[in-house]
Amino acid sequence: MQRIRALDGLRGMAVLLVVLFHADEAVPGGSYGVTIFFVLSGYLITRLLAAERDATGRVDYRRFFVRRARRLLPALLIVSATWALISGSWRDTLPALLYVSNYSTLSGGEWTPLHHTWSLAVEEHFYLIWPFLIGLASARHRSRILGGLLAASVIWRAFVLSAGWERWAYYSTDANSVAILAGCAVAVLPKWPRWVHGRWAPLVLLLVTTVVSHRTAAYHWLWFAVVAVAAVAVRQAPQVRWLELPPLRWFGTISYGLYLWHYPLIRLMAAPAASVALSVTLAAVMWYSVERPVLRSAAVTASRPLPSPRQVGARRITKSSSS
Q1: Domain range annotation of the chain
Q2: Residues 6+ apart with CB under 8 A from 146
Q3: Backbone dihedral angles phi then psi of residue 11, each to the nearest 5 degrees
Q4: pTM above the 0.85 mark?
Q5: Mind giving me the DSSP string for 256-276?
Q6: Could you report the per-residue pLDDT of 58-87, keeping only the tens digit for each?
């Protein structure tokens, strides 16, 4: 699947919003950046899985989960091990490593420097379920199934907010499924309405995050509008040329490591600017020395052709004769 350069820029924008939000709330509504990540994940994973399902008639689940593990686990293990060394205990890292940080927080778990991994837990729960649903859904019925799931998730989150369960709406996988499913839905739409133009969508997201504070009563309800605008931004990203600016795309490239590093360092260091600078440095080092080499080695392994039956037979004969 061809890489969309503008989506790297959108990812870079999202991670910078989150980092600046945590750095002394420099962007009052920057936590909406996590919502953009959810929409992006739903869009990209659905495009990948749907393309595989349509081309081969099935989804290679083993290949999918191995690819996800290679992408996500090395960086998470490094950051978790670093915090374990600093704190002298692995106890605080277990919710992050087990991808249950969101429900650990909801059940009254301690607020640790790895608290921000709650969003990784939400995405991991999606990765565990979604491939099997896509594998069962043919292209003919995919849009209707997704539309029904999205409508149900919107109704559920609205009920959660109406009941006054704001913390559940913020952290739980089920309430955040609206954002992920919105990304999934725009990934399978066969046609895009001509009247919907995406050039304005990223700018609207920037405006909302700088004006709306997460402390206001409207924050949770406005979240629905942010999801809708983010879905437009993701689908129409190639129309937005400034998202392809090299610096923004570079931040998108190191976004996973930057997200992992920034929150513990901001919690540990007194100077927000210094902690952000150190986070960027560590994320870049981890990308070039660990994450990218792991991904490249995986790509080389995946591209190697399987030996033919004749080659396998020849190897067996050679081996038996040499023994």
Answers
A1: 5-322
A2: 181, 184, 185, 188
A3: -65, -40
A4: yes
A5: HHHHHHHHHHHHH-S-HHHHH
A6: 999 999 999 999 999 999 999 999 999 998
